[in-house]
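Anyone else keep sequences and structure tokens together like this?

Example one:
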Amino acid sequence: MNRGIHKEKNKVVQTIIAISLSLCILILMVKFALAFKPFYYFEVDRLNIEATSNISKDEIIKNYDYTIDYLLGREGTKFELPTLPSSLFGQVHFEEVLKIFSALDIVLILSIVVSIIGIVFLYKKRNFSFVKQASNILTFFPIVFGVIFSLNFERSFIIFHKIFFRNDYWIFDPQKDPIINILPQEFFFDIAIFILIINFVIAFLLRILYHKKLKYLK
């Protein structure tokens, strides 16, 4: 009886650590994709944003860089683009996005702490099933969302905003908030796929690590 209870507790701990580790990796990959500005620079040319927005490339990059630095907490709390105008609703929206990223930072710290403690605990027991579980989660995530995004990204984009925002400030008027012209929906689709691909690669690497650990234990 006690052995069965102990086994069930181990499974619960494994699952908690796997979820925590997966969450940690997902958030880190989102932040990495956000901070990796060269991806956007490539998109500026690929999507011909300079022509469609009627804004020079230098100005596009300057305002994009500011926006990213702002969302990463490097520009204070008031959103104020270097050269482009912003409406009050536009400023409020970016301030709300900043709050979401700040909340993600807290979740990230907690998941890192839980993951480290759990990994140390399970490593001592030579139990690495959590690595396989984390790999499964990180494989499932990009496959499911990749299919959803591919079928109807616009609908997914709208649902995402309705879940995370209690207003419609995210629906920008290009005349009042021209930044929307340099952030086309195609860019958000590409960066979403970029994040999913990275997660899929990490899932694959975790699976390799898991099998190597099994061979080591044998």
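And example two:
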Amino acid sequence: AGSAKEFLNYLCQQGFEPATVQIYYHALKPFLAYLGILLTAKFKKRRKLPAYHGPDQVQAVLNVIHARTGRWSQLKERDMTIVLTLAYTGIRRAELLSLRLRDINFRTRMIKVSGKGDRERTIPIADALYEPLRKHTKGTQPSDRLFPMQPRRLWTIITRYAAQAGIEDLHPHSFRHYFATQLVENGVSLKTVQELLGHADISTTAIYLDVVPKHLSNAVERLPKFALTAI
């Protein structure tokens, strides 16, 4: 059993997918059981890295929305505000759709978000989001939802714009990944990113370090520069 476990561990260390290691495990287990040896093992699913979308992709989506004409043009302001809110806050789809005017404090420029497990957090309103959000909420009552629609409708809106912009695999949650990767890319601490995203476990946030490997170089480049008169 010891040698079998060492073999399975070796496969894991070599980067084999958990599903592949499990195939070997299930192949070995009956044979070892026949020999009277009990083999037990636990497998953790490898977290899939989110697709990377940068500012160019977000801008492309905004351009498509801005180009809307005809009877759909009246929805431009709403849809632009949806994309900007997702991109500048990193909130989840359900959090966006549950936002009400009373959750927005334009004086302090903060948004109160009710996240998973009824955990509340506050997110600053970025300068680029302030005016679009204020315009969108004009005439809205405190208890009114800012974006009254079903989750499926939001999904359709975003994926349709993405398709028109020629962008694959972009959906509402992609903007959460965009928000996180941009923060990491710009040197924001992982702890701060965790707080803004509302992650209970910082290991969930740490996945974005793999999505943006260049953060390591950026971190080193932030060190003080010295004048080298002679070497």
